[in-house]
Amino acid sequence: MSHIQFTHSERISFATLLRAGMINADCARELGKDRSAIGREIGLNKDDDGIYRAGHAHARAMARRKAGKHASQKIANDRKLRRHIIRKLKHHWSPEQIAGRLKLAHKATIVSHETIYVWIYEARPHLKKYLRCTKGQYRRKRGTKAREDTRDRAKVKRIDERPTAVDLRSRIGDWEGDTVIGGEKTARIVTNVDRYSGYGFGDLMHIVSALIMHETLEKRFAAIPRRKRHTYTYDNGTELGEDDAGLEQKIRMDVYRAYPYHSWERGTNENWNGLLREFFPKKMCFATLTQADVDRAVALINHRPRKRLGYLTPYEVFVLGKVPPGREKVICCDSR
């Protein structure tokens, strides 16, 4: 779970979940936050009337942060110290190593590593790339790393466990999924594409959570014939949550996960996302986007001839059942 401070987009999502009537524990799970962080956020940033509003909450948090910057001013006001820290960071020293070395040389604490971190994140965020961990702090609650890895492996089926037919693209019904993120980071388009035909779908989500994702996928795949649903492969992102077994029951497919940072393992979906980006480029905000806009773009993609299909369209192969030249008749039946 994340223990870092709330971002503006997270506060918007949090306020939306509260308005929907969700309790703190459910909000914490959906946002990937510790339950205590949820309570603390409400206590610190709610309005005087007791209602949590994202805009006011963010303004209050920023005001407190600005008031608490005094510690990092020591670095900001000392050019020599500042240049020393930047130089060592670029040599891949950690803030703790920099602070410790200064203390060793001067026989006294010159600056703490916490202050260096604050200065980097608040004043020089471009230096974060020199930190070994750029995703914020986390706390391991119990058990060893080996035990955690074992538990994680037990929860999911990995992509290399899929049936051979999936890799061979020998049938309709093996799906790959992902999300295309809008410029505001909160809205996304959930994309799903069939490996054999390249036929895809896009579902616009202005708020993303595991619960909403599962409901969206359940509704989408319920409209697809059972004979065209065999496997579903997703990346290692957190949007899908951890309940793969529950998702399997909802969409009636075996769910597999790609390995972290192995986007090429879902090449069909990555390629389809690239086609969708022609209509909704990176950094484009999805706030004013409608599902009708997405549907129009998806229709254009699904009716576009593909070289690998002998210039048939994905629609002709998936919906009309046409067989691409040089391929045997596709198998659509449930093989399990």
Write the layout of secondary structure elements.
Layout: H1 8-19, H2 24-31, H3 35-45, H4 54-67, H5 73-76, H6 79-90, H7 95-106, H8 113-123, H9 145-155, H10 164-168, E1 174-181, E2 188-194, E3 200-205, H11 210-222, E4 231-234, H12 244-251, E5 254-257, H13 267-277, H14 291-302, H15 314-318
Helix pairs in contact: 1-4, 2-3, 3-4, 7-8
Explain what the structure shows.
The chain has about 325 residues and is α/β, with parallel strands linked by helices. The chain is about 45% helix and about 10% strand. The radius of gyration is 24 Å and the shape is elongated. The model is unreliable at about 135-140 (pLDDT under 50).
As for the number of domains, it is 3
Described by strand count, sense and barrel closure, the largest sheet is:
5 strands, mixed
Kindly report the name of the CATH homologous superfamily of the largest domain.
Answer: Ribonuclease H-like superfamily/Ribonuclease H
Count of DSSP E strands? Answer: 5
* Mean pLDDT rating: 84
Between the first and last Cα atoms, what is the distance in angstroms? 37 Å
Shape-level CATH architecture of the largest domain? 2-Layer Sandwich
Instruction: Give helix % range.
Output: 40-55%
